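ARCHIVE CARD
CATEGORY: sequence design from structure
SOURCE FIELD: tokenized fold
FIELD CONTENT:
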């Protein structure tokens, strides 16, 4: 079992930055692809929107078009922690952000249904 805890959310003005952290316990994350997802309050359905993912080694990352060039995912396997650096934030980035884990040495995983473990989420609110 992997337990994930997100932190770092909050209220920020448009154009500002936040860094989210996802700390893991229970297992080492070094064999897991880690993903970030979000769910906005106005989203039509329960599906969480893919934000980005990072390979088990940290050498590969993949982002949704909506955040490419603004968000950066990194990981520190020694600290069992994954980060989401969010710059140039927009009001439409307002959402609850979740980190997720899937045990994989393979390609990026973008579907929420494919991840095995989830954190409880952290709220990010971007004011205009």
């Amino acid at each position: 079992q992997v337990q994930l805890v997100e932190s770092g959310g909050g209220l920020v003005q448009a154009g500002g930055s936040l860094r989210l952290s996802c700390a893991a316990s229970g297992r080492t994350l070094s064999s897991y692809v880690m993903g970030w997802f979000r769910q906005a309050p106005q989203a039509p359905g329960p599906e969480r929107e893919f934000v980005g993912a990072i390979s088990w080694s940290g050498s590969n990352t993949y982002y949704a078009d909506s955040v490419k060039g603004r968000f950066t995912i990194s990981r520190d396997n020694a600290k069992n922690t994954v980060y989401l650096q969010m710059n140039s934030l927009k009001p439409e980035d307002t959402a609850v952000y979740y980190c997720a884990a899937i045990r994989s040495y393979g390609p990026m995983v973008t579907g929420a249904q494919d991840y095995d473990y989830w954190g409880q989420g952290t709220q990010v609110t971007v004011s205009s």
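CARD ANNOTATION: The CA atoms of residues 104 and 123 lie 27 Å apart. The mean pLDDT is 94.
SHELF: design records, drawer C
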